[in-house]
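Reviewers asked in the last cycle whether our approach scales beyond single polypeptides. To address this, we selected a multi-component target totalling 1037 residues and predicted its structure end to end. The input consisted of the following lines:
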Amino acid sequence: MSHPTLTLSQGSRAMSKSLLKRRSLLKGLGAASFLAAPVFRATLAEAQAAPVRLIVLYFPGGAMMTNGSQGIFSYDKMLAPLAPLSSDILLFENIIEPPGPGGSDLGHSSESSILGGQGGPDQIEGVVFVPPGLTSFDQVIAQRIGKNTRFASLQFGVFSDTLDTDGPRASHIVFSNGVSVPNVQDPATMFSRLFNGAPPGPAPLDADALAKQQALTAKRQSILDLLKGQVTDIQGLVGSAEKLRLEEHLASLRELEKSIMSPGGGAGGGIVSAPGASCGAPSLGAGTDVPAVSAAMNELLYQSINCDATRVASLQMLHSGAEMYFSWLGLNSLGHHPMQHAPGPDFVVAQNWLLAQLAVVIKRLKDTPEGSGSMLDNSLVFLSSEMGDGEVHLNHPVPVLLAGKAGGQLRTGRTFNANGNNRANLALNIGNLMGVPLTNWGDPAWITGPLDLS
Amino acid sequence: MKLGQIQLYVLGLVFFGPACTASVGSPTSRNQGATSNVPSSGNASSGSGSSGSVVTPGSGTGGAGSTAAGGATPSTGAQPSFVIPAGAPGPTALRRLTNDEYRTTVQDLLGLAAPPADPLLPDTRSLGYSNFSSALTVSAVIGSQYATMATRLAGEAAISTLAPCVASAAEADCASAFIDGFGKQVHRQPLSAKEQGAYRALYDLVRTTDTYEAGIRGVLEAMLQSPALLYRMEYGAGAAARTLSPYEVASELSYLFSGSKPDTELMQAADTNALITPVQIEAQARRLLALPRAQANVGKFLEQWFLVSDMSGLLKDVNLFPAFASTEKSAMEASTDRFVASVMWEGDGTVKTLLSAPFAFVNSSLAPVYGIPNPGMGDTFVKTDVSSMGRAGMLTLPSLLALQAKEDESAPVKRGKFVRTRMLCQTLPPPPPNVKIDPPAPDPNLTTRERFAAHSANPACSGCHSMMDPIGFGLEAYDAIGTYRTVENGRPVDSNGELTGTDVDGKFTGGVELATRLSTSAMVRKCAAIQAARYTYGRQEIETDTQLAATLDAQLGASGMDVREVLVALTQSASFTTRTFVP
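The resulting structure, written as structure tokens, was:
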């Protein structure tokens, strides 16, 4: 497929002459349709604060703690790839993952506790586990702020569905109303989602063409109304769990509705996306191995935020218990999961690689000017793992960090001792920082209130 | 160094031998609610449930052990072939079509030459199956993909064929006729007045600014992504105890055997309320089993059962196995398809034969894997007797062994676990919490078996590993891609193994003996029936399924258990026509 590549300079503030050029370029990217006149963040920032974005980054298997001190994750060993970014990071010590129902830390099905505000369940193989009726906090936030962007949220994955003994197995960190929200693991699919099938551009001036576009919009809206009606009718017939699954179906129809709204056409908009000056469809390599897919997903994730296609995104690297061999690093004797249970230098190399991938995203945001700072200053990155000490499935403590200043609300460049507080409470902090306080959410046995991060 | 020791001290962990306390269990019904999105899906034994389809013993031919080529023996039509004990039916269900089902359905609706290949997010698997209702949803991603696909297909559809309208007819009447007729096929049942009205309003809207054809295309675009198409309802009507509608039963039959919407004959049977009795349902099941589509769909069940349906993500060490990615893997996939099809449709279709058949389909790419020197086969697959080369049935297929292995070596634990969970339907407990796992450093001078000796030597490990390793060690003659070998790392392969906790216990040597032993096991046959229930209903098994498995083994076991008969029998079970509503 052909895709335009932009060579606009970043942070450019020259608006008059290049405005028309950018508008036509961006039209092909679907971004300009949301705006009557494309206003770039460089200018927006002068008028108002840039929107705060939430980016969730996940890696499995935990990180070994520093020699001799329990509870302390520092930048040596596995977190080393993040050391250059330490001034933008708030690193947590002594923060735990709420344990499972038996009171113990059971690891490989506990990915749901990353964003779920509760502990992990008993280990279940071969079946995707989702806490009944629960919505992960990123989705709670996305549902509130998502109407401002083309996609309420986007989920990226790198080989997070793989072959295990009980067959192909998936575990997802994002769920809504007790229904797993699958991620996209194919870069071409995500590229297509972001950059192809773009909504109609600004209203054409020709009366005939305008009439055609309005008819098309009316047809699409009518189709979506019809489908929503049918889904709602089915909801009336089914049980509660399936009602919730159909809620997800309705959400997907509402997202399609957003994409057909045209400022010229008149169905209304309400979307106030503001893409960055360097927003552009990336050139993706054709590689299908793990490093190639990871690089592509990093690029697509960055652009999805940069183009303001969404303000809530998550990236899941592999999945808990993945048997993936890190052969591109020459690690051919044990897969990731066995390495986790026999940790040595090889496992450090593997975890370093995963964290280096995630660090790329943080660094790209840091390197993109925005307003008087960077995109990272106006973002909130939440990075964690489903294990602390993966060898014994120990989840107290677990590695957790926040990166970015959330629009100046968060002080970084330090470590914070949580003194045994839990990661579920940190979700409350994140909700507050994103302007979406989480109420009546998560397991009340563990949710006691936000941490004091001042 | 071991950080663990410091951790143990500081954190006060008590290191104890986990001593897997759970014994190897017999096939359980796994009624735990946490494993499914449907609350208490397993607890279907509500008092108000229907009593199931109790039938009087009949003199039906049963088709047991029949060797009819191309399908099971049709019943005499007077009596049903199976005596199914009463049992509580399963839960009501809303089942999204799998991607294959959607594509084939759309192909049939539009009369296309092939299923459309537009991208769809891969089905999420559950217990190895791609059709579990709890794992399939319409999320934002696939919803968008359905929309794109529907737009394209509607735009390219041959309207003059799908919605012909002669000059003398009123267009509005043609549109209504299309909506009723085509809509019935899309919804797999007649449209309600409300549904007709909504489609009609859509047509009218488009027609005001465009042509008749455009109006029909608009309706088509909506229909091709309609939830009525995307979801199979298995709900019936009523209170807690439900009877499925004839249309719901038609869809059950059709998707199980044909992987697509009901054909004309099935729809007529539903229209005339002729899908009620066990005999009626059995007749349709057998009719569908004789159609060409059944081969692929029964094959799909079997391959998902044995976890060989998808090798696309399988990677092997390129230095050790240079030809795997380029030629051997795809040849293994095709060879597996052919083997399954041959047993099912040219052979007797039994579990016994699936597990013991002495032949394989070999071409020049696979000849080295099978140990056939210079076969001169070219690319064509040739049915070859491989029994003297260490092969017998599914368990020794290179595809299966390669999938149950590591990138560069065999995996006895994985293979042992496979036999336990997939073939014996036994559940293995997970490692106990906080277990200290301290595997020995790999010694490249030893064979795999020798390196794993600590599993049995160390009492902390042996409790669980004794259930898996002795089986997997018996398959050590097959390397990481399933090639038969007699030496490993210069040392002779020791293929001695042992089965415990089964109905065919005892020592064995090598894959042929293991496979042949399992092919005679009643536990394996019952597991086959349980796996068939999972696939038929798209959910974990319930108590009634386990009981049915025992019944079927009693009826079909002596002849090796014909898989097709198992599927026909499932259409006779309570859950096929009745359900319990889960609020």
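Residues 442 and 451 of chain B are 7 Å apart (CA to CA). We regard this as preliminary and will revisit it once experimental data from Aim 1 are available.
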